[in-house]
Amino acid sequence: MSYDNDNIFAKILRAEAPAFRVYETDGALAFMDLMPQVPGHTLVVPKDAAENLFDVDPDILAATILAVQTVAGAVKQAFEAPGIMIAQLNGPAAGQTVFHTHFHIMPRFEGLEFKLHAREVEDAAVLASHARRIRACLPPQPPAP
Ligand code: AMP
Q1: How far apart are CA 81 and CA 11, in angstroms?
Q2: pLDDT tens digits for 78-92?
Q3: What pTM did the predictor assign?
Q4: 121 alpha carbon to ligand 1 midpoint, in Å?
């Protein structure tokens, strides 16, 4: 499969589609998952036209994993989560549904089950409030476009 420039994350990166943004660097952008599997489910995407992990420019991948570390720390603090799960799916056989590389950050609590993957769109007010909580645990960022 070749990279589709009109995939939803490419549109979010170009600010052509809405997202509840939480963090941005020269190499990566983080925003709330629209269909969270747990409260606080956040995505980090590299600023590279890369379908999966194997296609990402190494320097951009390095910047992306640093953003994952930073945002995961903020998610952990914002949700007072005892555990944080990082997931990254490559190819339909692995369950990938959006073909622009991304990392999932998910707060985990003993006994709190996951919702099904990419099924139920969360209320916008909830996502906005979760994004605010995470942003409050991150260094100040310029206003979102
Ligand atoms: P994956 O299956 O690993 O490719 O994950 C794709 C993720 O993107 C799923 O968790 C979806 O809920 C999420 N998603 C799909 N569309 C959007 C969107 N417009 N904004 C934010 N997250 C999205």
Answers
A1: 31
A2: 999 999 999 999 999
A3: 0.96
A4: 10
